[in-house]
């Protein structure tokens, strides 16, 4: 894929005025060509969707274990997903809320038990 992008860049660097005028007359009714920058946009969208789902899962798991690690990680991933305009903003917001809930659970555990672990035995 990299070679294709480099070849396209080389072709556009060596275009003369005559080549442009010939191309305009020959392809007047042709559909416009896709630009090479459309592929990275799709990859960024997928990455943002993955970040939204990962923040949701990490926030959910963080309610039970590793609150200190998974809570902030879920928050950061959710904010990155929202900043990159994910197609799943609801899931990113839910991951953000679960990450904050992880930190709240951690604060409650520290104040009640004096430890960062669950104590179900009583």
List SSEs in N-to-C order. HHHHH
- Based on CA inertia axes, which overall geometry fits? elongated
Whole-angstrom Rg? 25 Å
β-strand amount: under 5%
Number-wise, the strands total: 0
Structural category: mainly alpha
- Our measurement of the CA-to-CA distance between the termini, rounded to an integer number of angstroms, reads 60 Å
Low-confidence runs: none
In helices, the fraction of residues equals: over 70%
Count of discrete alpha- or pi-helical segments spanning 4 or more residues:
5
Q: How much is the average pLDDT?
A: 75
- For the report, how would you describe the main beta sheet? none
Describe this structure in words.
The chain has 122 residues and is an all-alpha fold. The longest helix has 25 residues. It is elongated, with a radius of gyration of 25 Å. The relative contact order is 0.12.
How do you describe this structure in short?
The chain has 122 residues and is mainly alpha-helical. It contains five helices and no strands.
Key attributes of the depicted protein:
73% helix; elongated; mainly alpha; 122 residues
Write the layout of secondary structure elements.
Layout: H1 2-13, H2 17-26, H3 38-62, H4 67-83, H5 89-113
